[in-house]
Amino acid sequence: MSTEVTLADGRELLFFSLPGNTPSPVVDRRPLPPFVPGESQLRFDRTTGQWVAIAARRQDRTYKPPPDQCPLCPGPTGLTSEVPAPDYDVVVFENRFPALSGAGAAATVPDGFAPLPGVGRCEVICFSSDHTGSFAELPAPHARLVVDAWRDRTAALQSQPGVEQVFCFENRGEEIGVTLAHPHGQIYGYSYLTPRTAVMMAQAAAHRGGNLFADLLAAEITDGARIVARTELFTAFVPFAARWPVEVHIYPNRFVHNLIDLSADELDDFARIYVDILQRFDRMYSAPLPYMSALHQYADTDLLRDGYFHVELMSIRRSATALKYLAASESAMDAFITDVVPEAVAQRLRDLA
C-alpha cells in the first residue's frame, strides 16, 4: 500500500513505508508552474526503425546541486524538496523533467516527418532518505520495499493507455552521468518497444527449441564457469558474450514475464540476491563501482510472450583506474569490444562473496 499526495505543480507523489512507519507529508509550498504533460515528441528514424524522444525541457533539470540543496532529500518545510516530508522510506513521483508524459495512443510509424506526442510516463524512485547511502547498503526489509514499489508501479504503468513497456532502472555514479547523488532510480513507461527489447524478441522468436532465455539460463548453469551466485529461486551470472567490463545478469529460476508474476518468496529472494551482487560490486575496488541496473520486464502479450524477466547490471569500470568508454565502434556501429574475459570477471565476483 502507498500514500498519495499531490505536489505543488499537480504531479503525483507516492510514499511506500516499512511496517510500523507512517508517512507525514506536509504541504508542498514551492512556487512551481503547473505541470503540463505532453511537451515532448517522438520522432521515427527510418534508417534504423527506432524511435527517438525529443524532450527539450530536460535541459532545465537539476544538475549536481550541493548536498544541502538536494531535491530528493526530505523537505520538512515544504519549500525545498520534491519530497515534502520530514522523512520517508521509499517514494515515487512523476519526473518534473520527463522524456515522456501523458496518456494517449501507442506510437505508430507516421508518414513523412510528422512528430508524434511523447506519450508515456517517467517516474523517479528514491530508495531511501539517506543522501549518502546506496541500494547495496539497504537492510533486507528496506530492499524488499523498493522491489515492492517497483512491482506496484509496473502494474500501474502497464495499465496506462498507450504504455507498451515498463522499464525500472538505476544509474549510479558520476562516471555513468548521474547528476543527482542521492540514491535513486527511474521508472519509464514507453509508448513503444525499446530497440533492445525488439531485437531480443526477434531472436527469441527465431530460436529453435524451448524459450531462448530459459535455454540460455540452463546452459549457463550447466557450464558453471560464469555463475556468480545461485539460490533455489534465482541465478546470477556473467553472460557468455558480456559487452561491459563488469556485467551480471540475474534470472529467476522459473519463467515469469515481470515482477508482478513473482511469488512472495521469490520477491524476498530477488531482493537478497540483488543486494548481494551490488555489495560484491562495491568490494571490487577501493571506491564504489559505478553501474547501470536494467530490469527487463514484459507484458503478457503475443508480441512479448517469450520475454523472460531478468536484471542486467553493468559497469564501465574496467580496472581500478580505467573506464571503458563507448567510442566509435560501440556508439556508431553498435559493435562492442570488451577488454576483459567474462570467466575472469565471474571468478573475481565469486571470490568477493
Automatic annotation (TrEMBL):
Necessary cofactors: Zn(2+)
PANTHER family reported for this sequence: GALACTOSE-1-PHOSPHATE URIDYLYLTRANSFERASE
Gene Ontology molecular function, alphabetical: UDP-glucose:hexose-1-phosphate uridylyltransferase activity
Pathway: Carbohydrate metabolism; galactose metabolism
Catalysis performed (reactions): alpha-D-galactose 1-phosphate + UDP-alpha-D-glucose = alpha-D-glucose 1-phosphate + UDP-alpha-D-galactose
Originating species: Mycobacterium paraterrae
Coiled coil (UniProt feature): none
EC code(s) of this entry: 2.7.7.12
Enzymatic class: transferase
Protein name: Galactose-1-phosphate uridylyltransferase
Domain Galactose-1-phosphate uridyl transferase N-terminal, first and last residues per copy: 40-193
Keywords carried by this UniProt record: Carbohydrate metabolism, Galactose metabolism, Metal-binding, Nucleotidyltransferase, Transferase, Zinc
Gene symbol of the encoding locus: galT
Sequence ranges assigned to domain Galactose-1-phosphate uridyl transferase C-terminal in this UniProt record: 206-352
Gene3D superfamilies: HIT-like
Pfam families: GalP_UDP_tr_C, GalP_UDP_transf
Record family assignment: Belongs to the galactose-1-phosphate uridylyltransferase type 1 family.
